[in-house]
# Entry
Amino acid sequence: MNTSVKLCGVEFKNPVTTASGTFGSGMEYGEFVDLNRLGAVTTKGVASVAWPGNPTVRVTEVYGGMLNAIGLQNPGIDVFCQRDIPFLKQYDTKIIVNVCGKTVEEYLKVVERLASEPVDMLEINVSCPNVKEGAIAFGQDAKALENITSEIKKIAKQPVIMKLSPNVTRIADMAKAAQAGGADAISLINTITGMKIDINRRKFVLANKTGGMSGPAIKPVAVRMVYEASHAVDIPVIGMGGIQNAEDAIEFMMAGATMVAVGAANFMNPMATIEVVEGIEKWMQKNNVSDINEIIGCVE
Amino acid sequence: MKKYETGVITSIKEISAGIIDMSVKASMTSLCLPGQFVMIYPNDKSTLLPRPISICEIDKAKEELRFVFRIVGKGTAEFSTMKAGDTVRLLGPAGNGFPFDRAEGKNAVLIGGGIGVPPILELSKQVKAKKVSTLLGYRNNDLFLKDDFDKYSDVYIATEDGSVGTKGNVLDCLKSQDIPCDVIMACGPMPMLRAIKAFAEERGIEAYISLEERMACGVGACLGCVCKTTNKDHHSHVNNARVCTEGPVFEAREVEI
# Structure
């Protein structure tokens, strides 16, 4: 039985990674989760310098999911390279580093700094809905997305994944723009912009007013977008958005994803990643699927 | 070290209006310290995030944790309907707990306000000090858990309506009763903690306060539950410490609240 997948020349032992921002750099969940079992760990977004993030309240629950407006709090690339990469290198898993910035130059600084680091792929976050400048501005305009992708590709030493926002009119256009800019892969979806109001206090629940929605309630939207994006481009797709179990993961792969990421489900069940990995194996056995690659984009 | 496990509820009852007293058999009990909390997972699939519930008592012999919490939303409402024998998923112990060794040889004052009363109980059992005085603040004469405290230290009561003890808040009580105080350890609503921080700074005494914030993961990964700190935090170096990991107990001077 083969569970390994290949993405841009990198081989992953299985198609399961973590969604950026839900798993830190693996250190915290490493107490419960054997990181060696994961295809890859995708780290929390890192910028050229430390970012303090948004004021609290930063997280709140909604029906079937949650909203977050963390605002990409992170220690900056220097601390990340000294602390987080050596930590992850102890494990037999691939490392995908999520990169954020407010300007093109800031993204480039991080990408350049990572060129000499032992990381397997870069995921460029142009889709965070919770920071005022940069980030999502690049992810909601096809031309800007193509430009930043090509700037990053000029200097990146690792394959580049562009992480797309679902907060657009036509996801296929954004996927095409990333491909036109030279992206090696795309990942989607980031969170869907939402809002929650405390009707007793007549106030926004989140200090940021809006937040990104994640959790099982967004899964059908994500599956549809993964299907549309993967059919619009030739580059591989990493699918995510509400994956809680192996069945969800398989659904994304059938829609066209080569890999899948487990996000908010980590909060709801710290063993979610492992359960997805094991569940895929069980599903393959039960359904006589000898190679997981057979099911990628098989929906008809 | 934290554990993710399934615990079994051994007893559950409403001890006061909307206040639930629940004991759970769990192997993590031996690891727990006063002031730490446990993430408890609802079963209702529309209610996805675990709820951080403070530990009220730790019974290592019986391997049982006691939680006393207020019904405030869907998660705690679901927990309140559970029965003895039901299982519940738990992750913990989470957080740092009270640095109770800091009270050695000193006059310690433990303060609990409202639903901040329960975590002070285990602390009052384990703290070793020259003298321990416990101040409990309530709205009215509904003094839940008060009898449990009487076994372990001198207990003083403040009520907002003046029906029992000092009329006013716990600081009014502390000042009016002339209680010896070299170090404070407290849990309660934010206005109370702000007042304690100001009081401690004015008198130049140590105070350790337990903070509350909305959480998602409870293990330090999501960065949802931060509070402003005067020094660079351990994780992101941006003066935003994680309440679930570096906290929930902070030296009052270290946090901006």
About this structure: The domain at 5-295 of chain A is CATH 3.20.20.70 (TIM Barrel). The first strand of chain A starts at residue 5 and ends at 7. The CA atoms of residues 19 and 65 of chain A lie 15 Å apart.
